[in-house]
Design goal:
This protein is mainly α. The protein is built from 6 helices and 2 strands. The protein has a two-stranded parallel ribbon with strand order 1-2. The longest helix is centred in the middle third of the chain and has 17 residues, at 45-61. It starts with 5 loop residues before the first strand and ends in a 10-residue tail after the last helix.
């Protein structure tokens, strides 16, 4: 994403040190910070972020709080720039669902099971800001 200051660099199984070094130098030349991770499902950012968003959808689905209160709680209570549901709207609910499905299938852990409400939203074409729905 062009506006993000970080590039998550994934070191493949056969990536040698020289290639990794050139890639990290390119990130720096573009004015980006970089972080590296192994080639695993979700890498770092999505492995942590998507279950967070998914859990927010479960909280909404279970009627624990409104979407507005979920976002307000996380934004003001944890000092993140936007709540998880707002962030999901920007990412695209279809993209969030796709990532959760990959994590669930590849890792086999039920903690990555997509929230049924997320599935319902996507099936209904409610994908977030990109579709204005």
């Amino acid at each position: 994403v062009p506006v993000m200051p970080l590039v998550e660099v994934i070191r493949g199984l056969l990536t040698d040190d020289a290639t990794l070094g050139r890639t990290l130098a390119l990130c720096s030349a573009m004015g980006k910070q970089h972080a590296t991770s192994e080639d695993r499902p979700g890498f770092v950012a999505n492995r942590i972020l998507m279950p967070y968003i998914n859990e927010a959808v479960f909280v909404l689905q279970e009627g624990i709080a409104t979407a507005e209160d979920i976002d307000k709680t996380m934004k003001l209570g944890t000092n993140v720039p936007m709540g998880p549901l707002t962030l999901a709207d920007f990412i695209g609910l279809d993209t969030c669902l796709s990532i959760m499905r990959v994590l669930h299938a590849d890792l086999g852990d039920s903690k990555y099971r997509p929230a049924p409400l997320l599935v319902n939203f996507v099936e209904a074409g409610l994908l977030g800001k990109k579709t204005k729905r």
